[in-house]
Structure of DUF1015 domain-containing protein:
Amino acid sequence: MAHPELPVPDGLVLRPFRGVRFAVDDLAAVTSPPYDLIGETGVRELLDAHPNNVVRLILPGTDHHRYAEARQTLHSWLSSGVLVTDEEPAVYVYEQSGPGILQRGLIAEVALAAPEQRTILPHEDVMPGPVADRLALMRTTEANLEPIFLLYGGRDGTATRLVDLIAASRTPLVETETGDGIAHRLWAVTDPDELAAIDTDLRPRQALIADGHHRYATYRALQADHHLTAGPGDGAAVRGRTGGGTGPGSRPHGGAQPWDFGLALLVDSDAYPPDLKAIHRVVPGLPLEEAVNRAKTAWQVHEHPDLAIGLAALREAREPAFLLTAGGSAHLITDPDRRRVQRAMPAGRSARWQALNTSVLAEFLLPRVWGTRDDEQSVRIVHHDPEAAARLARDCGGTAVLMNPLAVDDVLAVAAQGERVPRKSTSFGPKPRTGLVMRLLTPSPQR
């Protein structure tokens, strides 16, 4: 298939859009975590919480009609008034707060950029399965149902000061508290001068994809599809001020279309440092005893009587280190054979990349020690929760591989030099709540 010439944004471009929001009394009951953090049990709980929970859109089922079902549901909710579209395009200030948590940022359309443009930096590889799934959903619904999560270094810039001023002094458009104790507030920024100030501050900056690599790859694939269908002439640069109307804050000229943008939350990591958590693995069908015995050929193994003691030892261990368990006892593996690890590493990778615990896991421990690969077919993923990983390992007759989170500085350094960490290496938070504001790529059905 030919590859069309795609628009090239002249910087980090945010654009206002007409947000789609729920018009229900219990807003918390219709929202959800991001789609990839919801297991089967979570889907059932969300469906039970409210008949209009957004999970019906983002995870609409398992049969081949599921994407059409999501489109039908979306249009039904728009037509009935369960969902409403804001009258005026806006950039939305979004705040999450709770015990030990405060994060503020901007939700808007972000102009899509190729990695080589060094404007929006990926730091993690993607797998074809999730991209194909999200692409089918976006094509069919013609909507961005949940934002990706971007970080940038704001250094007390104009955009950050404005975000904080709005959060401190204005009445929110939306306010709710979810079951995890996190309060969510949303404000709409529509003033042309404020939009222009945000644009001027952000345009020369660079952003890192903290969460949503598969969705960003989907945005780019959908963009390419549309430009391929449209043919030549739609590949001009995305320029001009951000906006969705006319005059100051207007739509960028040069042929930019809705699919040249994607829904994103942009957070200043200087003002609001992210929380980086680990993503654990479970290897089904690899009994713990066998996993430990094989590990002894290349690692130092330290047995601990229970998971809590093992996790405490893991936190203090020198990297790379992993904790193996299936419930009950836990086995900390440390100090691998350095020469064997080095031989397992792919050529051309930086020393910093090679030292990441997820690199050692993906290139040495899984394939060379256990004879498996860190892919969707061979390995199960568990976000954050070591106890849940241990239970899953016990239930599937396998081994949970628990690890410490990567350091934020390591992730930023690897991304800055054009490398990507292995898949499912990072889980940045707090993640935006799905369902607070969505984006349509085509006009909404009239009520």
In short: The two ends are 39 Å apart (CA to CA). Residues 213-230 form the longest helix (18 residues).
